[in-house]
Structure formats: C-alpha cells, structure tokens
Amino acid sequence: MKRNAFDAIGADLSAAAAEKRRHFVPALLGGACLVAVLLMMAGIREDFAQMPTWRQIALGASWVVCGLLFPAVGIGLWFPGRGSRIALVGAGLAAPLFAVVGWPLSDAPHPAAPCGIALVMLGAGLVGIGALSGAFAQRRAASSTAWVAGGLTLAALTTTSWICPVDEVMHVATGHLLPGLVFAGIAVGLARWLHARQRS
Predict the structure, then answer these.
(1) N or C: which end of the chain has fewer CB within 10 A?
(2) 88 has a pLDDT exceeding 90
(3) What pTM was estimated for this model as a whole?
(4) End-to-end alpha-carbon separation of the chain, Å?
C-alpha cells in the first residue's frame, strides 16, 4: 500500500515535470530564435575576436546562467539548494557585469539610445514569450517570477554586449546598465501581475 502511494506521488511529479518542460522548451527555442535574429540583423561586434578570453567566457556564460538556469529555477524544473541558489544569483549578476563592462574603459563618447532601445525591445520580446508560454504561473510562490523575469532581462543585457563594441563609461552606464535596471523592475512587476492573474 505504501509503495503504491510512493509510486503515485512519483507519477504525479513526473507528469508535472513533463508539463513544465512542455512550456519551457518551446519558450527557450523561441527566445533563442529571437536573439539569433537580432544578432543576424545587427551583427556581432567586430572586435569580438580581440576581446580578452575572460570576457568572451562571461558573454557565453551569461546566456547559459541567465537565459537557461534562472528560468529553469523559476518554473520549477530545477530545485537547487540554498547555497546553490545564492551562488547562482552571484554568477547571474557577475557574468553579465563582466560581459558588459570592458576593461580598460574608453573615454570616447557614444550615443546610448540605440543600445537602450535594443535592450528594451529584446527584453520585451523575451518576456512576451515567457508570458505566452505561461512561465510566470508555473509555481505557487510569486517570488518564482523574479527568477524568470530577472534572468530574461539579464540575458537581454548580455545580448546587447554581443553587438555593441563601445566601452565608454557613460555609454555603458546609460545605454546598458540603466535601461537594464529599469526594465528589470518593469518585467518583475509585470511577471507578478501575470502570476496573480493566471493562477486566480
């Protein structure tokens, strides 16, 4: 009798995980296609091959950590322990920062608006895909939405650094970091609203 109960629980968990994957995989593919289209339209920054190896690694790692692992935690496909979650958040903040902020910083001014607009448009597209897939309503806890929305915002922030070769201080601050911070607040607020609406 006890074994049958355990089997039933296991079957329920497997079914729930399969349902989450059914939402996650198409959204992941859609987001990857959106990023690929932007990169094809805008082109990868011309100095990519000359960038320090650590920064190239940061650019790639940011996509994996923020665009894949953060949403996996948010929708309930992965349940890391407390220490792993803290380490993941640290990596998710550090990798995009290393990717965006080059060294040494240049002092040649450059318009910030195009990069900020690209970041917001890509972020809106990624969050829109997440909303349509039901990613923000997969877990009961509203805090789970921050993992998804925050990860997608950081992925969009990283993508702009695959395109933009400018490392001037004010450009990075006003064209990348500030729009990313503002959009993150909007995305998390929207995600919480969708969570409440879709789970009601």
Answers:
(1) N
(2) yes
(3) 0.84
(4) 35
Tell me the pLDDT band of 90, cut-offs 50, 70 and 90. Answer: very high
Measured between alpha carbons, how far is 164 from 182 in angstroms, rounded to an integer? Answer: 19
Q: What is the mean pLDDT of the segment spanning 95-112?
A: 73
Three-state SS string across 43-107, please?
CCCCCHHHCCHHHHHHHHHHHHHHHHHHHHHHHCCCCCCHHHHHHHHHHHHHHHHHHHCCCCCEC
Map tokens 């970041």 to a residue: 119
Q: How many beta carbons lie within 10 A of that of residue 49, not counting itself?
A: 8
Length, in residues, of the chain: 200
15 — pLDDT class (breaks 50, 70, 90): low
- The CA distances from residue 116 to 53, 61, 122, 131, 177, in Å, are 26, 22, 10, 22, 9
Distances, alpha carbon 42 to alpha carbons 119, 173, 194, in Å = 12, 21, 31
State the pLDDT confidence band at 121, using cuts at 50, 70 and 90: very high
